[in-house]
């Protein structure tokens, strides 16, 4: 290509726009690459990375609060030698913060693309619509998992240095790993619901309100059911709200205390949560099939 | 009837009885059969004529109710992903996230078309430069002017080096200077970059300047489809546009013996007959006509916006009776004969 290169070298730097257009015949990567790139982009978006300070404030505020709580708990443990809070109770105690976090991040991931009209650009590319929806869900779930999992890991690391003997570390690990699983359950259930709501609302502020509403709307039902004089009603009442639904799973599978009191219905809580996640994901897919056609 | 991919010469777009109805009531496209060869193609029709629906079917985003479509030899309803990998789409509406920089956004869109990370970044800045965005590409898109936003929209459609660009009303919301710049850019993409372009517009006068072929639709039906390659020669008509005082200028030109015709804001002046009086031996008839017009403008002290030789009046070509539809060859010869 010497004939093409020669005139360009003589050119003064000022006429940069005269460089001819270059066709691209290099690699065009496939579906896995697209999914990976969109996932990373969405995960960064969740924490406001690569964006303005304004987009960083709210997610990092919550990250800060969660981190502070973890630090305080670790410090208390270092002082007293007693764990103030079990690992599995950590995500449960922070459920309000998880709601806020998903209410902030889900609209950034879903409503923002709807509102700015960027969605048709995605769907005019080789990206599959279902991949888009599932990647967004995966990104929100991962972000929520990181929000809780990282502080929890820090707490575990702190504890591992404090306890005596390798046997005690193994005991800690035995508590810590199920708690991570419990964090994952929190992340997926909260994310499905939040993202589904966000995918239906174009305005971010409205979506955030709607998400908080979706989580809190049914909690009075749980309260009413729990004060009824029937044991089964209070044991099943937790199913009515996503927050108590997840706590119920914790009581059944991850905790020894069992303060919600699900009685023998633990597996039902698990099934309902699974059903909620599957139904939510299917609705999300249906939503993006429809929105793409517009 | 079945449409096969075309060996040898690739037909850009071919449709056969393409029909799209929404529900049972609204017919967006009706029995549209058209073949488009590579080059810059104008898709012209009023708002609601079915242009956007046409584009969405070409992208495989909508499924036609009936008929068939081929884009670059592929069926978009079956091989949608393959089509979308080779096509760039610039929508009519706003589609830019305001809180990203143009560089970042176009890079991301490049990656979404399958470009590797570093390539996407390089091509994003290259493409943004080609559409005329330099240092401002690091600023947030939210602060851009409409003209700059349109350029970013074009850049994201171009970043992955498509074989075909689908542009939906690319000059929407632009001022006259911005429109000219955008049209110039599209013309460069079609000629210098070697990328075929389908430009949708409701303004025929606008796209006719840059197109090799025109497809006019109305109410979802094909009105006319014509190759303009044999009509690109400039006509013996000069068009004049002044920002104000159009009427005065028309009167003035008539007074100096130029038969002026009015077309909206444009004045159309036929070039003087070379044999007529007033054309000196030294000048050509064209130069003399230019001189007369410029003198008239100068005397009246009017702000001259444009003075150029126009191509054939495609508007007239397309304004013919809809009954005499789609004689692609007939259109060319009719005009040749009129000369």
From TrEMBL, chain A:
Coiled coil: none annotated. The chain crosses the membrane at residues 57-78, 90-111, 132-159, 179-198, 205-228, 268-286. This is Membrane protein. The keyword Transmembrane applies. It comes from Plantactinospora mayteni. The keyword Repeat does not apply. Keywords: Membrane, Transmembrane, Transmembrane helix.
From TrEMBL, chain B:
One of its GO terms (molecular function) is ATP binding. InterPro entries: AAA+_ATPase, ABC_transporter-like_ATP-bd, P-loop_NTPase. The keyword Transmembrane helix does not apply. Belongs to the ABC transporter superfamily. This is ABC transporter ATP-binding protein. It holds the Pfam family ABC_tran. The keyword ATP-binding applies. Signal peptide: none annotated. Gene3D superfamilies: P-loop containing nucleotide triphosphate hydrolases. It comes from Plantactinospora mayteni. Coiled coil: none annotated. Keywords: ATP-binding, Nucleotide-binding, Transport. Transmembrane segments: none annotated. Residues 13-244 form the ABC transporter domain.
């Amino acid at each position: 290509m010497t004939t093409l290169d020669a005139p360009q070298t003589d050119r003064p730097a000022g006429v940069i726009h005269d460089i001819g257009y270059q066709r691209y015949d290099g690699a065009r990567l496939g579906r896995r690459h697209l999914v990976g790139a969109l996932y990373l982009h969405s995960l960064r978006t969740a924490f406001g990375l690569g964006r303005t300070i304004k987009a960083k404030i709210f997610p990092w505020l919550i990250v800060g609060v969660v981190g502070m709580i973890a630090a305080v708990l670790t410090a208390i443990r270092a002082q007293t030698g007693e764990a103030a809070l079990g690992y599995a109770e950590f995500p449960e105690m922070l459920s309000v913060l998880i709601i806020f976090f998903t209410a902030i991040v889900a609209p950034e991931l879903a409503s923002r693309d709807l509102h700015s009209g960027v969605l048709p650009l995605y769907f005019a590319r080789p990206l599959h619509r279902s991949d888009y929806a599932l990647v967004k869900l995966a990104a929100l779930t991962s972000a929520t998992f990181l929000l809780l999992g990282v502080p929890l890991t820090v707490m575990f690391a702190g504890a591992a240095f404090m306890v005596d003997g390798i046997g005690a570390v193994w005991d800690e690990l035995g508590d810590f790993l199920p708690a991570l699983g419990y964090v994952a359950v929190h992340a997926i259930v909260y994310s499905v619901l939040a993202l589904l709501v966000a995918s239906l609302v174009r305005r971010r502020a409205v979506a955030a309100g709607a998400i908080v509403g979706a989580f809190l709307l049914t909690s009075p039902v749980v309260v009413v059911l729990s004060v009824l004089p029937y044991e089964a009603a209070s044991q099943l009442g937790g199913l009515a709200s996503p927050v108590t639904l997840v706590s119920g799973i914790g009581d059944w599978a991850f905790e020894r205390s069992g303060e919600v009191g699900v009685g023998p219905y633990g597996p039902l809580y698990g099934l309902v949560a699974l059903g909620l996640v599957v139904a939510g994901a299917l609705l999300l897919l249906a939503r993006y099939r429809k929105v793409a056609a517009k | 009837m079945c449409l096969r991919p075309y060996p040898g010469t690739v037909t850009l777009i071919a449709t056969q009885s393409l029909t799209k109805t929404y529900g049972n009531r609204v017919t967006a496209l009706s029995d549209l059969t058209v073949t488009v060869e590579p080059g810059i193609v104008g898709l012209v029709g009023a708002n609601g004529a079915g242009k956007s629906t046409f584009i969405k079917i070409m992208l495989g985003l909508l499924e036609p109710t009936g008929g068939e479509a081929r884009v670059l030899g592929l069926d978009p309803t079956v091989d949608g992903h393959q089509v979308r990998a080779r096509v760039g789409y610039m929508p009519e509406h706003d589609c830019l996230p305001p809180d990203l920089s143009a560089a970042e956004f176009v890079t991301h869109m490049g990656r979404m078309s399958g470009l590797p990370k570093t390539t996407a970044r390089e091509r994003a800045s290259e493409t943004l430069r080609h559409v005329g965005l330099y240092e401002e590409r690091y600023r947030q898109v939210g602060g851009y002017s409409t003209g700059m936003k349109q350029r970013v929209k074009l850049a994201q459609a171009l970043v992955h080096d498509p074989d075909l660009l689908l542009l939906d009303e690319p000059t929407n919301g632009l001022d006259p200077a911005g429109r000219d710049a955008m049209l110039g850019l599209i013309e460069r993409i079609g000629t210098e970059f070697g990328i075929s372009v389908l430009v949708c517009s409701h303004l025929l006068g606008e796209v006719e300047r840059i197109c090799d072929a025109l497809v006019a639709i109305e109410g979802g039906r094909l009105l006319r489809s014509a190759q303009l390659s044999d009509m690109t020669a400039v006509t013996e008509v000069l068009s004049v546009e002044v920002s104000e005082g159009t009427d005065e200028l028309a009167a003035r030109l008539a007074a100096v013996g130029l038969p002026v015709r009015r077309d909206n804001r444009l004045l159309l002046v036929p070039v003087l007959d070379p044999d007529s009086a007033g054309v000196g031996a030294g000048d050509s008839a064209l130069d003399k006509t230019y001189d007369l017009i410029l003198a008239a403008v100068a005397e009246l002290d009017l702000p001259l916006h444009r003075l150029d030789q126009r191509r054939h009046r495609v508007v007239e070509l397309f304004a013919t009776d809809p009954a005499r539809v789609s004689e692609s060859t007939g259109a060319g010869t009719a005009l040749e004969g009129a000369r």
